[in-house]
Amino acid sequence: MAIKIFLSDDHAIVRDGLRRSLQQEEDMEVIGQAKDGLTTIQMVRDLNPDIILMDISMPDINGMDTCREITRDFPNIKVIGLSMHSAKKFVSEMFKAGAAGYLPKNCEYDELSTAIRTVMSGKTYLSPAITDVLVDNFVRTSPEENNSVFYTLTKRERQVLQLMAEGKTTKQIGQSLHISPKTVEAHRLRVMEKLNINNVAQLTKYAIQEGLTSVEI
């Protein structure tokens, strides 16, 4: 039976390239794709793939929080991070979120197919290109990691920050998260207080640095 794969990336050209390559494998089948975290979560509930290839910086819900929700609700689904981010905080947070593998986007295709089969066999896959990053994370916790957005802000605060950085209004954020504008404002104020940032431009810069969103969005 073919390995059912779902592609989660905000760049259509990346998804199309992956789909074309993976469809050449006799034991693999791409059953769906999405450009943002929210759509990924919704589609995965219906499609039930074996593997999700997931980017980190995506609209609405970033890859790390998307991975966390999926692996919590669907423990049989394996997530492989496939991202341009290779810094320690991104790799470690993706694994903490439940990912079973992680590769940089500039990896060779053969490595990607190997990673998929490795994860499907029940093992964890980490690209040799970033092995030192994760090993160092177990040996030493840096001040940078302790200041990560995933330590500083709650899940809801991260969601509000990401949507703010993506240019959503208070009303739009409330509608997206199913909360009142007043609650959105309360979260916004707490985010600014915790981060000691008092303007949207700096909040956007912070969100980009932490991988919650990207410059292209």
Molecular structure report:
The protein starts with a strand and ends in an 8-residue tail after the last helix. Helix 1 (12-22) links the parallel strand 1 and strand 2. Helix 3 runs parallel beside helix 4 (88-96) and helix 4 (88-96) crosses helix 6 (131-139). 53% of the residues lie in helices and 13% in strands. The protein has two domains: 3-139, Response regulator (Rossmann fold, 3-Layer(aba) Sandwich); 147-209, Arc Repressor Mutant, subunit A, CATH 1.10.10. It has a six-stranded parallel beta sheet with strand order 2-1-3-4-5-6, with helices on both faces. By secondary structure, it is an alpha/beta fold.
Uncertain runs are none
Helical segment tally?
12
CATH architecture of the largest domain: 3-Layer(aba) Sandwich
Q: Domain count, please report it.
A: 2
Structural class: alpha/beta
CATH class of the largest domain: Alpha Beta
Strand content: 5-15%
Mean pLDDT: 88
**What's the helix-strand series?**
EHEHEHEHEHEHHHHHHH
CATH superfamily of the largest domain: Response regulator
Number of DSSP strands? 6
The end-to-end distance, rounded to whole angstroms, is 37 Å
Q: For the CA atoms, what is the radius of gyration? A: 17 Å
